[in-house]
From TrEMBL:
One of its GO terms (molecular function) is pyridoxal phosphate binding. PANTHER family: DTDP-4-AMINO-4,6-DIDEOXYGALACTOSE TRANSAMINASE, TRANSAMINASE. The active site is at K181. This is Putative pyridoxal phosphate-dependent aminotransferase EpsN. It comes from Allorhodopirellula solitaria.
Length: 372
């Protein structure tokens, strides 16, 4: 079986983790947390990093720290993992959705302006699958309309948009360190900001909003989203190898592109645009109209041949949990609906070997050669 993801832990992970155990510092009070926060913020060119338990929690903190609440609208892509939409809905605000660009699969920036209302408070950018969102026009819209930008850069470690780091564009930007990200802690997340007051708010929100003077008296509700020293130890070691991880992902992407280029009936991910070169968070494939089967069928066939896959994200406006709340009734976003049904990704982890890649591509060729 070739799993859809295998992490690569071949740097200082073991040494740093042993330091935690040997020193007894395993909690969030340990020294690796601050070291990881500083190193990660510096790598993205930000003033403050606030490490937390996971990327979804980082989004909860960012949305709360942005002051988003009942009555507010937040413009975001419908094609995304649920986390950013969940954070907005839990805050009592309303996600206002835009469809995807059919080539990059990222949010179609040209659709944003028509969705702005007097209630719009922020644009929540989610960069997907290895390529950033087209940021310059988006930032221009935000500036002209006085909107905050929150950036979910969970899939963008080490990626740049026109040579500026992803994670540097939002008043608040977030990352995840889930095992399939280019930097992992097992579980983990980070909020980045340049604003001293916002950073303080984020630290308080991460830590149950304990107060400095009267610890157990609370003016506001927060979460326990603290990161442990052990997570930070792994994260710091991973960060030291980020350049190598990016290079490896790009090599994997190039190998898949070369092997799959001539297959008909599939759309491959863009290798580059005029603003970025893909870092292949994962290698996604979308079946074209020429194929009758949908992604679940080909994923089943690949599983029979020992190849792990995952479907694409399911659109926010089609999520049963939101429909049951009366959200997004009668809304339709045809690109997102199509790629959600026709898209899947193949094994793309940092631990993938050249042999794995050729096994995956020959299995894919076999499945796609079968008439459908
Ligand atoms: C992985 C991911 C998240 C969630 O991160 P977790 O650490 O798994 O909570 C959020 N947004 C995007 C775009 C992601 O890819």
């Amino acid at each position: 079986m070739i799993p859809v993801n295998t992490p690569l832990l071949d740097g200082n992970e073991r040494a740093y983790l042993l330091e935690c155990v040997d020193s007894g510092w395993i909690s969030s009070e340990g020294p690796f947390v601050g070291r990881f926060e500083q190193a990660f913020a510096a790598a993205v060119g930000r003033k403050h990093g606030i490490a937390c338990a996971n990327g979804s929690g980082a989004l909860d903190i960012a949305v709360a720290a942005a002051g988003i609440g009942p009555g507010d609208e937040v413009i975001m892509p419908t094609f995304t993992i649920i986390s950013p939409a969940a954070s907005v809905v839990r805050a009592g605000a309303t996600p206002v959705l835009v469809d995807s660009d059919p080539d990059s699969w990222n949010m179609d920036v040209a659709q944003i302006e028509a969705r702005i209302t007097p209630r719009t408070k922020a644009i929540l950018v989610v960069h997907l699958y290895g390529l950033p969102v087209e940021m310059d026009p988006l930032l221009d819209i935000a500036r002209r309309h006085g909107l905050q930008v929150i950036e979910d850069a969970a899939e963008m470690h080490g990626q740049t948009y026109r040579d500026r780091p992803c994670g540097s564009f939002g008043e608040l930007s977030t990352f995840s360190f889930y095992p399939n990200k280019h930097v992992t802690c097992g579980e983990g997340g980070m909020v980045l900001t340049d604003d001293d007051t916002i950073a303080e708010d984020c630290r308080r929100l991460r830590n149950l909003c304990f107060q400095p003077g009267r610890r157990f008296v609370h003016e506001q509700l927060g979460w326990n989203y603290r990161m442990t020293n052990m997570q930070a130890a792994i994260g710091l070691a991973q960060l030291e190898n980020l350049d190598a991880h990016i290079q490896r992902k790009r090599e994997m992407g190039a190998a898949y592109q070369a092997a799959l280029r001539d297959l008909s009936g599939i759309q491959l991910p863009l290798a580059q645009t005029d603003y970025a070169e893909s870092i292949y968070w994962v290698f996604g494939i979308v079946l074209t109209a020429a194929r009758q089967i949908d992604a679940t069928e080909i994923m089943r066939q690949l599983a029979d041949r020992g190849i792990g896959t995952r479907p694409f994200f399911w659109p926010v406006h089609e999520q049963p949990v939101f429909r049951k709340q009366g959200l997004f009734a009668d809304e339709s976003y045809p690109v997102a609906e199509r790629i959600a049904r026709r898209g899947f990704y193949i094994p793309s982890g940092l631990g993938l070997t050249a042999t794995d890649i050729s096994e995956v591509t020959s299995a894919l060729k076999h499945c796609l050669a079968t008439p459908s």
